[in-house]
Write a structure and sequence with these properties.
alpha+beta, 4 helices, 6 strands, 22% helix
Length: 110
């Protein structure tokens, strides 16, 4: 007879952070979800989004999403200060490219 798995432990300090980031007269929705090893970070605009390495750029490409991947960040502030690691064809159509500062990307996806 197999034993039931113990319930998954959730980090007690794990709280989802959400904030609005003003870009010109519009806003980007920023979300941080703490996982066990790292944080999942997404910056969502009306025309596209920035995602951390937890999310798969290949899948975003499959859905024709205008998506940008960033890596090596643990906070929303770090995400805002980094550069594009990769992006989908739909993001490139918006004028986004590798190594572009995220501050410039937000102006294109807001």
């Amino acid at each position: 007879m197999s034993q039931a798995s113990p319930p998954m432990k959730i980090r007690p300090q794990a709280k989802i952070q959400q904030e609005k980031i003003q870009v010109g007269e519009k806003y980007i929705q920023a979300c941080l979800v703490p996982f066990f090893a790292k944080n999942l970070i997404v910056l969502l605009g009306e025309k596209g989004y920035v995602m951390c390495g937890y999310l798969d750029l290949t899948v975003a490409e499959k859905f024709s999403d205008p998506a940008v991947r960033i890596v090596g960040v643990s906070t929303i502030q770090e995400a805002l200060g980094t550069k594009v690691d990769g992006c989908t064809a739909a993001a490139r159509e918006l004028g986004i490219h590798k190594d572009q500062p995220i501050s410039e990307v937000l102006k294109l996806i807001v």
